[in-house]
Amino acid sequence: xxxxxxxxxxxxxxxxxxxxxxxxxxxxxxxxxxxxxxxxxxxxxxxxxxxxxxxxxxxxxxxxxxxxxxxxxxxxxxxxxxxxxxxxxxxxxxxxxxxxxxxxxxxxxxxxxxxxxxxxxxxxxxxxxxxxxxxxxxxxxxxxxxxxxxxxxxxxxxxxxxxxxxxxxxxxxxxxxxxxxxxxxxxxxxxxxxxxxxxxxxxxxxxxxxxxxxxxxxxxxxxxxxxxxxxxxxxxxxxxxxxxxxxxxxxxxxxxxxxxxxxxxxxxxxxxxxxxxxxxxxxxxxxxxxxxxxxxxxxxxxxxxxxxxxxxxxxxxxxxxxxxx
Length: 325
Hints:
Elements: H1 3-33, H2 38-43, H3 49-59, H4 65-78, H5 91-126, H6 131-143, H7 148-162, H8 178-211, H9 215-222, H10 227-264, H11 270-279, H12 283-311, H13 314-324
Helix pairs in contact: 1-12, 5-6, 5-8, 5-10, 5-12, 6-8, 7-8, 7-10, 8-10, 9-10, 10-11, 10-12, 11-12
């Protein structure tokens, strides 16, 4: 591991820490700047004054905002976020238990989207002047407009209800049964990744069409490679760079999609817990969940930045040059 990549990791971790701090402040402030009494939001507007006062004391809502924020952050670091008022569960423990399904779903969908987008986009670029290339491109455009919940319902009807090939919902941990876990995640990942695959495939197609005119493609063909071989061997890495960039911008939509998909397929992840907390007016649970989802986006974005640095070694040099300039 060279010094350039270590420097990239260091800058990425520093940016991650600052972004997490700013994000935590925004999440904390926004839920309070919206207005209203948190205790009355949880208990309802008809709550008795004594009950509301007791809840404020229990949750520390009578303390100044900076004290509440520090207590909340300390709870994250020590694993003590208190208990849900209506559900009675330990908030930190419940989040930790539901983190795995959401990560498997989100990371699996991102990897599937990237892989399929590279294959579909490259195929469409190679055949851009033929009917099959146009058909693939039109299919990608249509795919960007179809919502994940509709795709999920169609897949359930087709592969679960009609054919009986795959489970319609539920979640099995890979530790408990890897095969059942794999089968159970196929439809949710397909639903969640369809839209992002279609969008990324269009970027791959556009990038590949530009790359096809580069000299190194003709040089590869001059050495005996076929056009598709030269494109895959020498052009795929360059085509992946803009795809990684766009993927980083799509992380928010991807995590938002997990909320819908987890509820459709009854997956006990963070998205499903968030919906239950919203319906139950669990303000403190919602606050912690939103911050956790933000952290997931930041960490995944950090990983994509590292991938970008590996795909484009010039990135570290350009940033260093900009700093000296």
